[in-house]
Specification:
2 helices; globular; about 20% helix; 13 strands; about 220 residues
Length: about 220
């Protein structure tokens, strides 16, 4: 699978669903479908709320890596020879976001503390935004700094959220540190996490034919 992709630079401004977001950092190159960024809302009112923005930017064997370029304005430019495949995969991404909003995040027993906004088609591709609050994405380097108590609390929170997917007949297929947001600890409140991958939840019995997207 091709790995190199041209990310959006830090401080780049994205206009999504009539809101402006400033890119702070690249969180991960998520499987074969997306780049994931940490961002903040551009506003006159200071806020510590963290947003996660998922940009559809596939790195798939079917699409030559040189067929997707980043324009000077941050937009993706797709070669005509790969445009049809790009659109097909983008629709799958957008449908995944829509399904999770409709079937999971609107449930009273929501498995995360945020809800992704409907996808937006801008910059020649699709984006989805999730508002998470105060905290940060877990990095592998953070794990050694957690106390035994922190680890137990994080695992309990993780199991609880995955269990809510299972109760609804769904499987979360991509559990890893870069898909887990750790909320800032306040006083003696137990550590809480949120899962924020938007399109790797599938109904049991309707799993994808290949796991290439999650490698």
């Amino acid at each position: 699978m091709p790995q190199y992709r041209f990310r959006l630079e830090n401080r780049n401004i994205l206009d999504i669903n009539d809101k402006k977001y400033r890119i702070l950092d690249l969180i991960s190159e998520q499987g074969g479908s997306c780049l994931v960024y940490k961002a903040e809302l551009v506003s006159d009112i200071p806020s510590e709320t963290t947003f996660v923005i998922k940009e559809f930017y596939p790195a798939l064997d079917e699409i030559p890596i040189n067929d997707i370029q980043r324009g000077t304005g941050g937009e993706l430019v797709i070669a005509e020879s790969s445009a049809k495949l790009f659109i097909e995969h983008k629709m799958r991404f957008c449908n995944g976001v829509a399904n999770q909003i409709a079937e999971i995040y609107t449930n009273p027993n929501t498995p995360t503390l945020g809800c992704p906004e409907p996808h937006a088609n801008v910059n020649g591709t699709a984006y989805s935004v999730l508002e998470l609050g105060k905290g940060d994405v877990i990095q592998k380097s953070d794990i050694s700094n957690f106390s035994p108590s922190d680890v137990i609390q994080i695992m309990l929170s993780l199991c609880s959220q995955i269990g809510k997917f299972h109760v609804r007949g769904r499987l979360f297929l991509d559990v890893k540190p870069s898909n887990i947001f750790l909320f800032e600890k306040e006083r003696e409140i137990k550590r809480q996490i949120a899962l924020f991958d938007f399109d790797t939840v599938f109904e049991k019995g309707k799993l994808p034919e290949s796991n290439a997207e999650f490698e």
